[in-house]
Amino acid sequence: MATTNPASAAVGDSVRDGVKKVVLAYSGGLDTSVILRWLQEVYECEVVTFTADLGQGEELEPARTKALAMGIPESSIYIDDLREEFVRDFVYPMFRANTIYEGEYLLGTSIARPLIAKRLVEIAADQNADAISHGATGKGNDQVRFELGAYALNPDIKIIAPWREWDLMSRERLLAYAAERDIPIEMSRGAKSPFSMDANMLHISYEGGPLEDPWTEPPSEMWRWSVTPEQAPNEPTYLEIEYRAGDIVAIDGVEMTPAQVLTHLNEVGGANGVGRIDIAENRYVGIKSRGAYETPGGSIMLRAHRAIESITLDREVAHLKDELMPRYATLIYNGYWWSPERQMLQTAIDWSQQAVNGTVRIKLYKGNIDVAGRRSDDSLFDANIATFEDDQGAYNQADAEGFIKLNALRLRTLTAKRGPGAVGCAELGKTSGGSS
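Structure (tokenized):
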């Protein structure tokens, strides 16, 4: 059983001094409900709760009811609808860069954290709070993301991370603590999901349980947003996605807000079995973690954006973007959204999107996302030059000879002066009369 004030000895008086009010990132679940009471007991402070609606598909009003039941006044309960801001100011800028981490992960959890950190700091200022608090564990990336974001926006903010202070290191101990203090915890009916899940408009993630064995295939019943490819329709679904300055503004001719775009693409993509991945990733704290992700809308967005860029971006600009993208993705994954280097990269990325306008036709079929067409008034594709037929003199093929010889000059000089081995072809010298 938990002690009366678990971890109170670990929290020194010097830390507690001056902390009279704390803004807590609060979901209403077991962890953050225990944290709420723990803050009241250990820090003897007033608690303000903040619950973010990022389109996770859950009813959020129960969080208000639970907070009220735990003595939080209505004026200290924030439940904010951040869906449009999330997609407009965080998801869209990230997709302008075609961002993926370690070749596969579309950063659904990572990109939500800077917005939550921003609102925590804003509410702390609004409430004249002394500190903020979160429920991220000491093993994960989220503690880094929340805290780097908070410090970047308010260098003097105090941060309380209970998982790094208390001794409630298991679900059983958390439940015992909640039972001792009559903390309202809604116990799920039926079998409890063995997975740790996190959802927002961009994705839903699954970790833990059977996924901790990387050889174990994710069970089919785990997935929430998408059907299996085998269950997807036998006829393809086509979408016409319209871009303006690198952002989707309409689908099938219907103008939509950013949040409406992502909601629609999630629905259509999930119905066609697209957007599932199963990866082992490298966390910033040094742990390899296996996770499964559903990102149907984001997967469509990535494929369509690369398609419209393929005809509207200059070659060297496109290649430079691809070189910068892994660094940009790592910055987001590791929690550096508010860093000057991410903002510098974002400025360059956004500049590149000025002419990324037009329409992409996407074909969805049994888990596949295919590009069926792309067009743009700003297209750099010139059919007169690219044609395999008579180009009527638009391209002089004889020019290629000089181009090749100029580019081969240094290679020819190197081999002539130092032999075939200078360019990694030592075996060539042997087959050309060299001694064996």
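The chain is about 40% helix and 20% strand. The chain has a mean pLDDT of 91.
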